[in-house]
Structures are given as C-alpha cells and as structure tokens.
Amino acid sequence: MAKIDEVKAQVEAGKTKLVPGLVQEALDGGSAAGDILQAMIDGMKVVGDRFSAGEIFVPEMLIAAKAMAKGVEVLKPHLAGDASTSLGTCIIGTVEGDLHDIGKNLVSMMIGSAGFDMVDLGVDVPAEKFIEAIKETPNVSLVACSALLTTTMPSLKNTVKVIKDSGLSGFKVIVGGAPITQEFANEIGADAYAADAGAAAETAKSMVK
Ligand code: B1M
Predict the structure, then answer these.
(1) Which domains does the chain have, with CATH numbers?
(2) Rounded mean pLDDT of 166-184?
(3) Which atom from ligand 1 is nearest to the alpha carbon of 150?
(4) Strand locations in the chain, DSSP E?
C-alpha cells in the first residue's frame, strides 16, 4: 500500500500513535503536504459515512479526529506559508452548539499563514463571546465563523446577525463549514464564504488588502 493510502487507512482506524510517523514517512517519500492532507480528509469522510450507516459510533469518530489532528501537527510547517506582513487580527471560532474543530483549526492555520494574527476562541462559541473578543482585541480585520452541522446553521446565522447588529465595524465576516454554501452565506449577511481552508486564506487576503 502506498504510504499516503496507509495514512488514510490509519486515520480511519483512529491509530493516533501511528499516524504522525506515517505522515512523516509520506513527506520523506516525496508526497506533497496538500495531498497527504486530502488523504486524511478523505479518511474522515469514510468515518462520517460509516457513522451515518450506523457501523461506528461517536467514540470512533472522536478517535479518528484525534488521529487526524496528530497528523496535521506534522504537516503544519509544510502547509503554512511565511507571511511577513500583518493583515491585522482574525478572530476565529466554531459557533455555539458545535464541537467540530479540525476544519476550523486548518482554516485558522491557513489564514494565519496568509499574514493574519490569529485569536482562536475554540468551539461552541456563543455570539456574545465573538462580540467580546472583537471589542477587546486591537486591530481586528476579520472574523471567521465555522459550522459543521446542519443543526448549527441557525447558530451561525445568529452569530453573523449579532455581529452585524452590534454596530462594531472595521472588519469583514467570513463563514464556512461542510453544510454551508455561498447561497446561505449571502442569505445570512456574511461578507464572504469559503469552501475549504486554502480558499479561506485566499479570500481573507483579498478582502482586507
Ligand atoms: Co460529527 N458529524 N458529530 N463529530 N463528524 C459530521 C459533521 C457528520 C457529517 C457525520 C455524518 O453523519 N456523516 C454529521 C453531521 C450531519 C449533519 O449535520 N447533517 C455529524 C454528527 C451528526 C455529529 C453528532 C451530532 C453525532 C452525535 O452525537 N450523534 C455530534 C455533534 C456534536 C456537536 O458538535 N454538538 C458529532 C460529534 C463529533 C465528534 C466530537 C465525535 C468529532 C469531532 C471532533 C473534533 O472536531 N475535534 C466528529 C467528527 C470527527 C465528524 C466527521 C467524521 C469529521 C469532521 C472533520 O473533522 N472533517 C464528520 C464527517 C465529515 O466531515 N465527513 C462529522 C475533516 C475536516 C478537515 O473537514 O471540518 O469539513 P471540515 O472542514 C473543512 C471545510 O468544511 C472547510 O474547510 C475545512 C477543510 O479545508 N471549513 C471552513 C470548515 N470551517 C470553515 C470555516 C471557513 C471556511 C471554510 O471560514 C470561516
């Protein structure tokens, strides 16, 4: 089995201890960091599909997520660029009610590497906490909100509304996550939508420059 396929298989199996070494071996073997990342994302898709089919349960999803997070740690220096100018501060978080953070962490890493200073509020972040952070943080140029569940799309909508209604200004709001679409982003009044972490970084840069 090719190393990159092993990475995918061991993410699916939730082999937290094996994945970092396999990622390193894949890098050493010449695989591109982006391809290794995609293999892990594909592995998580398989995990999600198995969960939907009732073949596995939340603990297995959680273990697979931990394995992927360990693999991403190894990939980090190879994915992130070295932006020298600051484009201001980006406040990022997963919205209230939602505990998924792997995608948000990748988006944070890529936006950070595009030249933003990052303030990561974590997961399950109430709209009011975004507001507090915007008020307390100097030079905020971007607020990034992630949502991974269809059931937390209303929470994302509320978050954007609370931010927009707050009267605070000087920054843009970008949203994303698996169930989110450009159409939904438009509907809830976000300034931008990105489908993945790379697009989020590109969009973030173009919005504040
Ligand atoms: Co959950 N989960 N989960 N889960 N989970 C999904 C999302 C699901 C699709 C699985 C499935 O059923 N097939 C499903 C959602 C179905 C739906 O909403 N229609 C689901 C469910 C149902 C649930 C629970 C409700 C299960 C339960 O308890 N019965 C529960 C909810 C908990 C909660 O949040 N309140 C739950 C729990 C969990 C775990 C905690 C066990 C774990 C998360 C651990 C963690 O994140 N630390 C987990 C996992 C691992 C998954 C899957 C398998 C993988 C998610 C992931 O990390 N993907 C997922 C299935 C899947 O996604 N295929 C699933 C890899 C990651 C890189 O992709 O997060 O999509 P993603 O991020 C992408 C893009 O979306 C985008 O960029 C990233 C990549 O470049 N993006 C942005 C993300 N944020 C962005 C922000 C942006 C721009 C782009 O701008 C700001």
Answers:
(1) 3-83 (1.10.1240.10), 86-208 (3.40.50.280)
(2) 97
(3) 18
(4) 89-94, 117-120, 140-146, 172-176, 192-193
